[in-house]
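Obj: model holo form, ligand = adenosine monophosphate.
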Amino acid sequence: MLVVTTIAGVRARRQELWRQGKTVAFVPTMGALHEGHLSLVRRGRELADEVWASVFVNPTQFGPGEDFERYPRHLDQDVALLTKEGAALVFAPSVKEMYPRPPEVQVTLPRLAPHLCGAHRPGHFSGVALVVAKLFNIVQPEVALFGAKDFQQAVIIRRLVEDLNVPVRIEVVPTVREADGLAMSSRNSYLAESERQQAVALWQALAAAKAAVASGERRGSELEKLMLATLRRYPGVRPQYVAAVDPETLAPVERVAGGVLLAIAAYVGNTRLIDNLLVEVPQ
Ligand code: AMP
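Output (holo structure tokens):
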């Protein structure tokens, strides 16, 4: 597998692949790879001739006081995992390579970003949209893969690509979970053992709300109350938000019809975790 740190290096390799008539599936990541990321790589292998990943902890999507500095970075281990999964190239640029000077262009999503995580992380999705737009222009993949774990991010990227006519197909891959239901995340490595046990609260809350929908509950506010009540059974968990929203607009739903996205963000100790579940409602 090629490890490329420069934009020029990626472009040169991309030119070669075009000459060979080969397609690329692209998996953008911040590294500290786990099974969730690797499931994207595996799916990518089914969709294109080569899978290319990026490992870049993007400063523009972290707010002041967030974990940019201490975000886990293990490029050697990531390279080994990507090699094992059959990725052909990893792009691991420096911050200087991606942002030689402070970017002037901003990507704002005034209707999608303010919901869910965006309400608590101002500027986060602008940072994500900007870096993904840059990465798409650098890699120029045929298809790019994103995890349903970051549902709002996936909705925003789909919209970015639609509005800017970026010629890339977006594929969203189901969330990979630990045996007890905890969604895999690079940030799970922050959890102490006692916190790890409490972290299952998010999945338990989503599962409780899903069961309520199956039993006929249609009021969004009741689903939110139920998720909150479930989280409150775990003393080590501090909910940030619980929400029952429309999966397309991400706006709260009063009455569920069709599909509903159940979404949670909560602190376990100092670690902020998110999870979500898309529930189809029997008509
Ligand atoms: P990150 O490195 O956290 O920015 O994630 C890179 C990509 O992997 C994003 O598209 C995430 O949604 C996806 N991802 C992260 N965790 C999981 C998971 N547990 N299951 C599936 N995809 C995931």
